[in-house]
Structure formats: structure tokens, C-alpha cells
Amino acid sequence: MGRWLRIPLLLGLLLAVVVAGLVDRSDGGVTSSFVRNAKKAIDMPIDSDVFRVPPGYNAPQQVHITQGNHDGSAMIVSWVTEAEPGSSKVLYGTDSNKLIFSAEGKHTRYEFYNYTSGYIHHCTIRKLKHDTKYYYAVGIGHTVRKFWFTTPPKVGPDVPYTFGLIGDLGQSYDSNSTLTHYEANPKGQAVLFVGDLSYADNYPNHDNVRWDTWGRFVERSTAYQPWIWTAGNHEIDFAPEIGETVPFKPFIHRYHVPYRSSGSTAPFWYSIKRASAYIIVLASYSAYGKYTPQYKWLEEELPKVNRSETPWLIVLMHSPWYNSYNYHYMEGESMRVMYEQWFVQNKVDVVFAGHVHAYERSHRVSNIAYNIVNGKCKPVRDESAPVYITIGDGGNLEGLASNMSEPQPSYSAFREASFGHAVFEIKNRTHAYYTWHRNQDGDAVAADSMWFYNRYWKSADEIPAV
């Protein structure tokens, strides 16, 4: 072959290689080109203003609320007193100057190694009116502190509602930036928290003082809007080397959830209805194999979801099933094998997870065709499957997960190693708008976004938001 004939052939082959590379990269989605200023993740000092104990004798602290029953007409109010138990009563009403109703709660405390907790109060306020602003007071008889919350609208298919999303928060300077950014976003009405709260277990002897500082740190949000809790691995607090053999002891004493109202037998898996959403919380660190309590509960729970009443089916868990970072890789695989087919059959809209300290959004994919015989081990696009979103980027002291697998897998639509929060804004039964906000941007700037088209009421495929 002549020299001049070989040149076009070589150019053609080179072009084919380049195009093939571009196609493979496109199939794998987008790896963000944003470069975050690298700095060491550091917890805020224990004497920081954000950890300050409120003034006054036996003043209530670490105030937080969460949904108190299945349909949102009840609220669990929790707080801690240090000097003595005091009252577990909550006064409340729709007029800030006339708190004419009251509810009586209970208090508990626990010991962990050489630490003894304060008096932890939990009080459930029931028979609340939907879509109503309530004022409430705690600390009756000592130092009274007042707060407020707004109940969700009555459950219905076209009720708009906006959830904030935070995971793996911790109490570092980056954590404070994440919470500040979320507070500045006016849309969020309740937080879906995907696990790993205080990171107290990173301290010697699982220093439970850091559970107290975390509770005071987040109070500026948790006292005013409900946070829906998911337990992560940093809530396990299993430390037999110091005599602590009861898993989740600090978490279950401090953070109550309405698990019994959905027929659950443990506070680590449960469901709630809120506006037009049906939210299922699963436990990555409790037994989930066949015939276990969690398995049996989920098997019975999914058919109960009435998509004509609550069209948006959202699942929260801690350990992600689809993850292209080289951290915690494949940790969620055994749970995926157990439950993914149910998610596809029941057309779950979106699954939010944490654990990996970065951000990632998948395409709608499933891997249910795989079995040990056929060898089909790669996820495929599946319009009946959920979108999987990892949002373990709250800002904790362990820092970012920045090492990604290459090339970017075909199931991964967008990924970025930055801290931030997200917002899931339900418009009606068919549409929801999702945005992810990195901490470095202005509050209104979305680093990633997409329109969701409801799986049950699906009329079109998703398209990325421009």
C-alpha cells in the first residue's frame, strides 16, 4: 500500500478510536470538572458558638422534631435537660401567645462507658391539623424555650411538597457550611436524613459528649422542621473493647421515630406518608435476609402503597447500591440482590443513600436479570427502576471521597466529590424537580438537576434540566 493511501486509513482509524472513546465517556455520564479547594476536614472546637448551651437553669437543649405517626397529623418533640429531669410536658397552640394545649411525654437516660447522658425527653403531640403553623414550648417549670413548626398538608396525590436531603453530616466546619446553605434555601419543608449523624464514634471511647454538641449544633433546623431519620454505620456504636455491646444505644435513646405506626418491630425500618410522598426507611445495618423481620415487613409494606393517594415512592437507606467511587464499593450489593426486584416491580421513583462522602446520581438502572448461571452482571437501563442518588456529602471530619473508578460506569449519570445538600421538590402527581447544591455555590445555584417523571403516572422519560 502506498504512503499516501496509508495516511487516510491511519487518520480514519485514529478518528474511530477518538469517537469510540467519546461514546464510552458519554455512556458513562458526567464526572464534574469542578475542583474543590483541598483542605483538611476538621471538627469545630467543643467551645464553638454553634455548640453553646442555652442560658438558664436546666434549659432545654438539643431540641428536635420528627413526624409522629403515619399520616403526619402527629409530631414527636424531643429535647435534653442536664441538671434534673424537670417536666416532659409540651405546651402548644396556633397562637404564640396562647399555648392552650398540652401533651405529656416521658424521659430517659443512658450510660456509655464513662459517660452519663442528660435527661432525654420525648413527647408525641397528636391530632394536629394539617397545613397549620403551631407554636410550642418546652422546659415547663424551669427555663422555658419556645419554637414553632408547620404540619404537612393532608395526604393527597397532587399536593406539592419540598424535601431537603442531607447525609453524613458530622460537626466539622464543612458541616456548618452545609447546614447554613440548607437553611438559606427557602424551599425545604422537612429533611430526609440518610444516616451518620454526629460521628462521635470517631473519638476515643466513642465520646458521647459529641452527641450532645451535635444535637445543639443542628437544633437551629431540627427544632423547626422535622428531620426523618435513617440510621447509618456511625450510629452503631458497638464497642465491646470498652464494654459496650448494645448496638445503636445512643441513637435509639436520643432519636425516636414512629416505626410502630407502620407495623415495624424496630426503629431502623419504617414508613411515613407526607403530602404526596410515601417514604420508606430501610436499615443497611440490621438483618435484611429472607425471613428476617425487616424482609417480612418490606414484603408486606410495598403492596400497601396506594399510588393514587401518594404517587411518589421514595426509599431512604444508608449504604448505596450503585456507587462508582473507590470507597465502600459493593457494600450494598447483598441488600440490592434481596430487594431490587421489589423496587422495580413497585416502580420506586428514587432511592437516596449516604455512606460515600461525595455526590452521585445514577440513570434509571437495574441489575435484576443477573443470576449465577447467566453471568449478566452489568446494570442495564430500566424505565421501571428508580434513580439512585448518593448524598453522603454533608461535611464530616472524615473528609471527601475523591477517588473514582475509571472509566465512569454506564449507570452513573453525574458525580462530583464536593460537600453539599439537595432538594426534591414535588410539583404534582407526575412531576418533581430535583437539585443538588454544592457548598461553594450561591444558594440558588444548582450544580446538578433533573426533572423526575413519576414512575406510576409516567407519561414521558426524564430529561436532564437545562
Q: Residue-averaged pLDDT, rounded?
A: 92
Radius of gyration: 24 Å
Distance between the termini: 50 Å
Strand fraction equals 25-35%
Q: Which parts are unreliable, with pLDDT below 50 for 5 consecutive residues or more?
A: 1-26
Quickly name the level 1 CATH class of the domain at 156-195 and 268-465. Alpha Beta
Shape: globular
Helix amount, in percent?
Answer: 10-25%
Number of continuous helical runs: 6
User: What's the name of the CATH homologous superfamily of the domain at 156-195 and 268-465?
Assistant: Metallo-dependent phosphatases
Count of strand segments: 25
Oligomeric state as shown: single chain
Largest sheet: 9 strands, mixed
How does this structure look, described?
- With 466 residues, the protein is an alpha+beta fold.
- The chain has a domain at 156-195 and 268-465: Metallo-dependent phosphatases (Purple Acid Phosphatase, chain A, domain 2, 4-Layer Sandwich).
- The protein is 17% helix and 26% strand.
- The protein has helices at residues 3-27, 173-184, 209-222, 249-254, 293-301, 333-345; strands at residues 30-31, 61-67, 75-81, 89-93, 101-104, 106-108, 111-112, 115-116, 119-125, 133-138, 145-150, 161-166, 190-193, 227-228, 270-274, 277-281, 312-316, 350-353, 359-366, 380-381, 387-391, 412-416, 420-426, 431-438, 448-453.
- The strands form five sheets. Strands 1, 15, 16, 17, 18, 19, 20, 21 and 22 form a nine-stranded mixed β-sheet that branches. Strands 14-13-12-23-24-25 form a six-stranded mixed β-sheet, with helices on one face.
- The longest helix has 25 residues, at 3-27.
- The protein is globular.
- The N and C termini lie far apart (50 Å).
- 46% of the residues are buried.
